[in-house]
Specification:
Catalytic activity: (2S)-2-acetolactate + H(+) = (R)-acetoin + CO2
CATH topology: 60s Ribosomal Protein L30, Chain: A
Enzyme class: lyase
Shape: globular
Keywords: Acetoin biosynthesis, Decarboxylase, Lyase
Pfam families: AAL_decarboxy
EC number: 4.1.1.5
CATH class: Alpha Beta
CATH superfamily: Hypothetical protein, similar to alpha- acetolactate decarboxylase, domain 2
Distance between the termini: 37 Å
Largest sheet: 7 strands, mixed
Number of helices: 8
Low-confidence stretches: 18-29
Structural class: alpha+beta
CATH architecture: 2-Layer Sandwich
Radius of gyration: 17 Å
Order of helices and strands: HHEHEHEEEEEEEHEHEEEEHH
Strand content: 35-45%
Helix content: 10-25%
Oligomer: single chain
Strand order of the largest sheet: 6-5-4-3-8-1-14
Length: 267
């Protein structure tokens, strides 16, 4: 990636973030300030559609915060402050290339609307209850970011697959889990309404990266030592559907889709 291309994409992300912030400050009149942009659906991922046509560079034109995965299901994605982190199956993390592609991701321009301190010792259930108690409605999408020190956090990361691709419930079996103790870092993702199950992941979908941006993954469980959570409501969902042969031939409404998603996500 050339310095010129890097500077160009950085400027585009800065300009879009500035416009979104201005719109939010002056009445929230812009769709950009309220929108989650998503490529493909969780139902397609369940059916083994692991190759998408959207690059990370293109994805970052729609937001500076989000999560997803990479083509061939090669690890987890976490986007913070306009930087796309590639979380690998061995628990390591690196910055993704702008030319990498994704089969599923959701991004937004993150502007915190609510900040809440997290009581020391809070586990995943307590943090979810804390956030739920601060929401105006469970019918909106919420971007959630928790930064602080974690007494313990348990993660796992999907492994790169080879064609013919298995369904997601098979691909996520037997994955190696990583437990980090006494680590600073950021837990980020979305709380999505139940009615979006299959389009997205209903409920909480969170990824983690440590303060050094060297380790991370899909968050299974955690306990907070100290920290605060930031919340931002979103009322627009833009779903961009791929036109790849694999997506066009996939089954997007499998039986027991909610159970399959819970199994695949470890929740």
């Amino acid at each position: 990636m050339s310095a010129a291309n890097s500077s160009y994409h950085a400027f585009r992300r800065w300009a879009r973030a500035t416009l979104a912030h201005v719109a939010g400050v002056h009445g929230g009149g812009s769709d950009v300030a309220r929108e989650v942009y998503q490529t493909s659906t969780m139902g397609a991922l369940l059916d083994g559609v692991y190759d998408g046509d959207v690059t990370i560079g293109e994805l970052l034109e729609h937001g500076d915060f989000g999560l997803g995965t990479f083509n061939r299901l090669d690890g987890e994605m976490l986007i913070l402050d306009g930087v796309c982190h590639h979380l690998r199956a061995d628990g390591s993390a690196r910055i993704a290339e702008l030319t990498d592609r994704t089969p599923f991701a959701a991004v937004t321009w993150f502007t915190p609307e609510t900040r809440i301190p997290v009581p020391p010792g809070s586990d995943r259930a307590a943090v979810k209850a804390l956030i739920d108690g601060a929401l105006a409605s469970v019918n909106l999408v919420y971007a959630v970011r928790l930064a602080g020190t974690f007494r313990e956090i348990r993660t796992r990361t999907v492994m790169e697959q080879r064609p013919p691709y298995p369904p997601l419930t098979e691909a996520t079996k037997g994955q190696q889990e990583t437990v980090l103790d006494g680590v600073d870092g950021t837990l980020a993702g979305y709380r999505t309404p139940d009615y979006e199950q299959g389009i997205s992941v209903a409920g909480y979908h969170l990824h983690f990266i440590d303060g050094d941006h060297r380790r991370g993954g899909h968050a299974l469980d955690f306990r907070v030592e100290r920290g605060s959570v930031e919340i931002s409501a979103r009322s627009e969902l833009h779903v961009s559907l791929p036109r790849t042969p694999q997506f066009l031939a996939s089954n997007l409404t499998p039986a027991n889709i909610a159970g399959q998603i819970r199994q695949a996500e470890g929740g």
